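This follows on from our talk about sequence and fold. I would like you to pick a protein and set down its sequence and fold. Go ahead and set the record down below:
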Amino acid sequence: MDTNYLNELAKMKRPLPGSSLTSDPTKPAAYEKAPEFVVVREALDYLFVTLTTERNYMQLLMSLSEGATVMDTTRLLLFTGFTEGKWNPDLLLLLIEPVAYMIMALAERADIEIIIDNDDETSPDEELSIGQNKLKEIQKRNMVPKLPADVVPAEIQKKIEKLPVPQVSSLMQRQG
C-alpha cells in the first residue's frame, strides 16, 4: 500500500474496528438505541417540517440551485437522521423515494432546475437526447409531469403547493 495513503488514513479520527464491542452498554450511541420513528408516514411528516423551516428551506434551495443533486441531498438527510437515532436502516431505505420526490417538489415549486443524480453511466449527450425524447413524448400527450400520487402523501403535497416561493439568489448574482 502507498505510505501516503496509510499516513492520511491514520490521521482520521474514527473508532477502531471492534470498539463498539468494548464500549459502555449503559451509554449506547444514538443509532444503537430504539429509533424515534418506526412508521414511514410519521418520519415523512417530521422530515417535511424539518425541511420547510425557514433556515433549512433556504439552505436546501440554495444548495440545489448551486448544483447539488437530489439523491445526494436525500442520502445526506437520511443518513444524518439515522446517526441521530431518528430511524433504523430499514426505514431509511423506505424513505429514500418519498424524500427524493419531496425535495424535487420543493425545488420545482421554487422554479429551480434539478439534477437528480450524477450518473457516470451515460454521457451528457446521451442524457440530453433521452431528456429531449421524454419531453417530446410528454408534449405529444399534452401532459404536465406530476409527482406520483402514491409516493408523497396528499397532505404533504398540498402543504408544498401552499409554500411561498422564495427568491434564491447566488453570491455571483448582481445585487441591487
User: Anything to note?
Assistant: The chain has one domain: 28-162.
